[in-house]
Write a structure and sequence with these properties.
Number of domains: 1
Largest sheet: 8 strands, antiparallel
Number of strands: 10
Shape: globular
Structural class: alpha+beta
Order of helices and strands: HHHHHEHEEEHEEEEEEH
Strand order of the largest sheet: 1-2-3-4-10-9-6-5
Radius of gyration: 16 Å
Distance between the termini: 40 Å
Helix content: 25-40%
Length: 202
Amino acid sequence: MTNTLVQNKKHIALIVALGILLAALVCIQQLRVQVDKDSAFYQKSSIPKANLSSSLSRGSIQEDIEAHSVKVSSIEEAKKLLSYDFPVPTDTNGHDLIGIYVEDKKVLYLRYKDDIYIVYHQLEGPEPDMNEVLTKRSDVFETTIRGHRAIAGEPGQMKGLGVGEVRAGGQISWFENGLDLAIYSLKGAKVGELKNIAESMK
């Protein structure tokens, strides 16, 4: 039982970090429920079989975040609620910060103008192996962010999620200093623009 729980935690971390929240555009809480339902599947693969039919609109994403999170007024207030420090962008190319949300004192969402999101989550163990995703997803590719290995995907059709092809925006995910981080767009921003934002984080 202990080994199974450890494996499930690693899969959850991998899902959050490697763009499932981004590519599938499903909130983290929904993913946790799906993992519980499909635990046998996750023991064999890091690619989820999430049902995305009702989670692709910008409205539903923001509603999910607000339903499971507390909105705070500043980065400083968010840091007081979280048990870890985190970098924030210093150059967002005109995408002003318009929302800060903390979920369960563990997950941080930064929402920027034009529906660009940055998501932070503290790893509970070693960094998962990105090769599992890179070898099974034809729509993502390897890049680097701030000197760290990362996985990215341009806006378009996302494949390999177990539900056929779905539409998604640009996305990047990576691990850094014990955190899994992801930046994604719901309005078609490309990897290059997202990468510039991510590289400015301090």
